[in-house]
Amino acid sequence: MMQTIVVGIGLSVMLAGCATRKEGRQEWHGDWSQIAGPFATLISTEANWKDLRNRMFGGLEGAPVPPPVDFEREMVLVISEGDFGPCRGIIPDGVWEEADRLLVRVRHLHTLFSSTDGSPFESVTTPSKSRLQRPYGLIVLARVEAKPVVVEVNQQTCRESPPIWKERHRLTLAQDPARELDAVPR
Questions:
Q1: Which tens digits make up the pLDDT trace of 101-118?
Q2: Which of 57, 86, 131, 168 could potentially form a cystine with 111 if both were Cys, beta carbons 3.0 to 4.6 Å apart?
Q3: pTM value?
Q4: Three-state SS string across 51-95, please?
């Protein structure tokens, strides 16, 4: 199946015929975690999943309570922006398995603010102490051992315009699961 993805005005990229669209098994997103720094990682064990959730949400009211993940067949992609501007979370926009990678496209659920005096909208990515948020996305994917997971983010800043995809992360499952949380700031 050939898929065309529009990446700019008059420009498109064909995903190779060997790309297969996958469905994300489950996902959770939100605007606050206890970790202030940005990170991305793949989680492949129940122990690491529990530890990471505790570090991100331990004691927070309204924290996500995900159902069990089958780590024999699945893994969890965790993306967090750390201290960030107004954003309600990070969600998957599509997952494709290709011959040499698993491509995950994500988008941010930006929040726009405007003043009551008619001044223009604030930039959606400018952090403000009064509107500081820490958006995250937790995405359950089919487990892939030998392929990197490539995360692309839509860089388009104009509303109602075609997406502009840019690689943000390239992750592989750690050979030693004890190293999976090394990328997570303390």
A1: 999 999 888 766 544 444
A2: 86
A3: 0.79
A4: HHHHHHHCCCCCCCCCCCCCCCCEEEEEEECCCECCEEEEEEEEE
